[in-house]
Fold:
Amino acid sequence: MLKWLTGKQPIPVWVIKQIDDGLLHLCGQATVEPQTKRNAVLTELHERRYQGAVNMAGGGLVLNARLFAALVPLEALEFDTQAQAHWQGRTWHVSQVPQRCWTFDGPLIAQRQRQGNRELLVSTEDVSGIRRQVKASLDPGVVTFGSPANEHPLIAPRHGEHTEASGISSKPPKGREWRGDNN
Structure:
């Protein structure tokens, strides 16, 4: 009752993870709890400036707003019978974002999946950049060799070597007898 009187009741929102050309990657519904006046928070939401906690529906997860591209008040985003969204004067296709991708810090891609007699778009992590890096590092035409003593400071130098990293010399200092244990 106190939240109702102070105007700080939770605001239900649609959570959009990523916005592509004509496609919304939609996580689902959540609520945000205003710390200031409700109208100020609604303005921040409409201008995509809201910062704070996002209480995800149906699981009790509380995530930071910076993980998402937009938090849209429920009444500002509508769906039609073809499961397309209408927001900001445009029609958008919608891709469902599974929970495992809500905190993913990279681009998402939409893939078509069949569910019963319907075809849905489901978002997944775009790992093509990682694959390119792995493929480049596994190029069999490039081989790099280096001195083991230069690669890691804990690798002991070979007989007769002195490395600056280890500070160990296998040759005795002048004026001392060589006993093989550097003493």
